[in-house]
UniProtKB/TrEMBL annotation:
<feature type="transmembrane region" description="Helical">
    <location>
        <begin position="279"/>
        <end position="304"/>
    </location>
</feature>
<keyword id="KW-0812">Transmembrane</keyword>
<dbReference type="GO" id="GO:0005886">
    <property type="term" value="C:plasma membrane"/>
</dbReference>
<feature type="transmembrane region" description="Helical">
    <location>
        <begin position="52"/>
        <end position="71"/>
    </location>
</feature>
<feature type="transmembrane region" description="Helical">
    <location>
        <begin position="21"/>
        <end position="46"/>
    </location>
</feature>
<feature type="transmembrane region" description="Helical">
    <location>
        <begin position="244"/>
        <end position="273"/>
    </location>
</feature>
<feature type="transmembrane region" description="Helical">
    <location>
        <begin position="164"/>
        <end position="183"/>
    </location>
</feature>
<dbReference type="GO" id="GO:0006865">
    <property type="term" value="P:amino acid transport"/>
</dbReference>
<dbReference type="InterPro" id="IPR052157">
    <property type="entry name" value="BCAA_transport_permease"/>
</dbReference>
<keyword id="KW-0472">Membrane</keyword>
<dbReference type="GO" id="GO:0022857">
    <property type="term" value="F:transmembrane transporter activity"/>
</dbReference>
<keyword id="KW-0029">Amino-acid transport</keyword>
<dbReference type="InterPro" id="IPR001851">
    <property type="entry name" value="ABC_transp_permease"/>
</dbReference>
<keyword id="KW-1133">Transmembrane helix</keyword>
<comment type="similarity">
    <text>Belongs to the binding-protein-dependent transport system permease family. LivHM subfamily.</text>
</comment>
<protein>
    <submittedName>
        <fullName>Amino acid/amide ABC transporter membrane protein 1 (HAAT family)</fullName>
    </submittedName>
</protein>
<feature type="transmembrane region" description="Helical">
    <location>
        <begin position="212"/>
        <end position="232"/>
    </location>
</feature>
């Protein structure tokens, strides 16, 4: 009975006794969840346009952030380095389309998936060769990103909102909204959806797969850069960020591989859920819930709804 009380009752008693701590925990989970959503959007963009699950999206986050920081270390002004990094991500998109995707058109999905594995380790090696393997500090001040915190008295206590977290949440929200409009309202967005439905049908109406793939990989690269800047500003820029980026996988499973709203909702559920789990239930198992809870939630969703909460249900007729 004592164990059941600690699991099912005591955490909620703690929430009611210290609502300010509950708000603080939810806020930190919200920020993490929004950034998870931003990473997941990179996966969704590429999968919707090409049917390829891009395992390299995580290392693209790291590579973009390292490029930005590396250029500033060479004396390039921060905003010029930002523009040059965007150019690097465009060249990377062109290179991936020419060298990886174009020769593998109409190959089985598993072949394309394995190609993104190879791309992952290529970018890891290239990044370590050019920038080294030591962690680096994001150029937060040079980019004009806010520092410090805003402390608010509420619910009988003090809740602290880091300014960089507020900026990250706003940037991610704007990016998510812009991508949603881009997919639904623009000609290129409609072309991307057409390519996702059928490559052959898209080619038959004059849509260039090569151009579409460059656009979508470049867009995913911009998303990766924005994510790398914000995650790097909250911690540091290192190859450990790739592990954080892989938290997008349970977000995708939860929300659905082809759904932009699913990426948003899934990210928020995972971010808030793991923070609440770590703070209130973590002491029961000695901590560390935050490292595995997201995958546990994703496994539960797979067993009930394999296509995710917002994914398209696949119906095969025999």
């Amino acid at each position: 009975m004592d164990l059941l009380y600690k699991i099912f009752i005591d955490p909620f008693v703690q929430m009611g006794a210290a609502p300010d701590l509950l708000v603080q925990t939810i806020w930190e989970g919200l920020v993490a969840g929004v950034l998870y959503s931003l990473i997941a959007l990179g996966f969704v963009l590429i999968f919707k346009a090409s049917g390829v699950f891009n395992f390299a999206q995580g290392i693209m986050v790291v590579f973009a952030a390292l490029t930005l920081v590396g250029l500033t270390e060479k004396g390039v002004p921060a905003y010029l380095a930002l523009v040059l990094t965007i150019g690097v991500m465009f060249l990377l998109a062109v290179g991936i389309e020419r060298i990886v995707l174009r020769p593998l058109v109409n190959q089985p999905d598993i072949i394309l998936f394995m190609a993104t594995f190879g791309l992952t380790y290529f970018l890891i090696g290239l990044g370590e060769m050019i920038f080294g393997g030591s962690p680096k500090q994001m150029v937060t001040a040079e980019l004009g990103l806010p520092r410090g915190a805003v402390d608010v008295n509420m619910l009988g206590g003090m809740v602290s909102f880091q300014k960089i977290d507020i900026a990250a949440a706003l940037l991610a929200s704007v990016a998510v909204a812009a991508l949603a409009v881009f997919f639904q309202k623009t000609r290129i967005g409609r072309a991307l959806r057409a390519v996702a439905d059928s490559h052959k049908a898209a080619l038959s109406v004059g849509i260039s797969l090569n151009q579409i793939w460059v656009i979508v990989w470049f867009t995913a690269g911009i998303v990766a850069l924005a994510t790398g800047i914000m995650w790097g500003a909250r911690s540091e820029v290192s190859f450990a960020l790739e592990i954080i980026a892989l938290k997008a996988l349970p977000v995708l499973i939860l929300g659905g591989l082809t759904s932009i709203p699913g990426a948003i909702v899934g990210g928020l559920i995972i971010g808030i859920g793991e923070k609440l789990g770590e703070f209130y239930w973590g002491p029961l198992v000695g901590g560390g819930i935050e490292s595995w809870l997201a995958y546990f939630i994703a496994l539960g969703v797979l067993m009930i709804r394999p296509e995710g909460l917002f994914g398209d249900k696949i119906i095969e007729r025999i």
